[in-house]
Amino acid sequence: MHIVSDAMKIVFKDFRCDKLQIVWTIVFMLYMSSSLSFFINSMFQEQEIFSPFADFLMLLFTPFLGFSFSRRAFKYLNEDSYTQMLFYYRSIPVPPEAVIVSRAFMGLCAFIMNGIVFFGVTYAIAWDLRASMDLISYISFGISWMGIGVLINGILIYYEFMKNGKTYFWFSIFTIPFFGVIILILYLTGLQFSLFDYFVYASSKWKLLSPVMWGSLVIGLTGFILMCCLTYKRMQLRDLS
User: Fold this and answer.
1) Which string of DSSP letters, residue by residue, matches 66-134?
2) Could you tell me the CA-to-CA distances from 18 to 69, 150, 207 in Å, in that order?
3) pTM, rounded to two decimals
4) Which of 51, 106, 183, 198 is the most exposed place for a label (fewest CB within 10 A)?
5) What is the mean pLDDT of residues 81-96?
6) 189 exposed, middle or buried (CB, 10 Å; 0-12, 13-18, 19+)?
């Protein structure tokens, strides 16, 4: 309980020092959801939902539902703000367990808040989507994608804590062509499989009882926790000089 108490102190301190981060995060989510809703809506205008670009777009965007647009996030490239944060908490000192628990808590809270905004606005705007899926099915669809996003976000958190700002930046950038190449290879080999299509089918058929939704959520959270545990072990050995 002492670790949780320290972690919550870190969370409240971050919000006090950067009170507008929630506002900026919601504004960005509103912009992205309103922009992507037209593309997602177009997927339901056609008889065939399969599209390699749909998978690419969702795999690219959903991990970033776990981030809040704080001052630290904007300055990590030129000031290496995440390394400075670790140096500060190590010098106080604050238990490393509390630091990683606070980051995990903030990430999961961001997923809940951003997920509600993003998928909620998309459903409100995308009229063809609403005609094809009822609200309960769409909630299952959104949670399925959030499970994938949580899993990838765990990997990003590892690089956030373990590497300097420039390395973290380039890793984030290279995830874009990585997903694109994998999806392109699958498409060129004739494997007509789409996560987007599969999630739509499973969510429409089973709704909140969808084994795909629960499987994605369990795998995502398990991977997220394991990556946080690995980050905790490695960050204690990281040279911050």
Assistant:
1) G----HHHHHHHHH-HHHHHHHHHHHTT--HHHHHHHHHHHHHHHHHHHHHHHHHHHHHH-HHHHHHS-
2) 10, 24, 38
3) 0.90
4) 198
5) 80
6) exposed
